[in-house]
Amino acid sequence: MHPKDRVNRLVFTLALLSVGLPGATLQKLSFDEMVGHSTAIVRAKIGPGSGRQHGALVYTHHTVTVLESWKGTPGVSIDVVVPGGQVGRLQQSVAGAPVLTPGSELVLFLWKSRSGLTHVIGLSQGVFQLERDAAGSVILNRAPLAASLVSSSGRLTHDDGMTMPMSEFRTRVSSALGRSR
User: Fold this and answer.
1) What is the 3-state secondary structure (H, E, C) of the chain?
2) CATH for 3-180?
3) What are the backbone dihedrals phi and psi of residue 9, each rounded to the nearest 5 degrees, phi first?
4) Residue 7 has pLDDT above 60, yes or no
């Protein structure tokens, strides 16, 4: 199994195990790991979500409009799934899963599963809000995660969130992509 598939499977498996269980645990990913394991990195506008059942699991599907792309060739729009949601009277929630608010503009680190579904990598780890500072410059911000995290060695760790100017983001993505080739 390819290392990218191993990391994505571990993060996704840990997320699935968290359905309905308090205190879910996710693997913490560094910025460079998210860049390396993503199949696409995009700035996107989030469309409305709708719940769909896939086997025993419910996912919320969002059509996102791609505004800018740093990795991959995603096209103009992508169907992005988030674990959890509602189908009829069946409702599931997954600790650590992001909430994609329709109309918001976000930077998303995405990966495509073997089943063809496109997920946010590392659940909420792969979602950055776009904000403006006092000077009007675009800042990317990810709040600290509420879910329990483990390092790649399996030790409990914490997350401080991440904030950086868009210019630094572009440089770091480009640098990480250069190292992964």
Assistant:
1) CCHHHHHHHHHHHHHHHCCCCCCCEEECCCHHHHHHHCCEEEEEEEEEEEEEEECCEEEEEEEEEEEEEEECCCCCEEEEEEECEEECCEEECCCCCCCCCCCCEEEEEEEECCCCCEEECCHHHHEEEEEECCCCCEEEEECCCCCEEECCCCCEECCCCEEEEHHHHHHHHHHHHHHHC
2) 2.40.50.120
3) -65, -40
4) no
Residue pLDDT, tens place only, 53-100: 999 999 999 999 999 999 998 889 999 999 999 999 999 998 889 999
Tokens 């059509």 belong to residue? 63
The tens digit of pLDDT for each residue in 126-161 reads 999 999 999 999 999 999 887 788 888 888 888 889
Quote the pLDDT of residue 159: 84
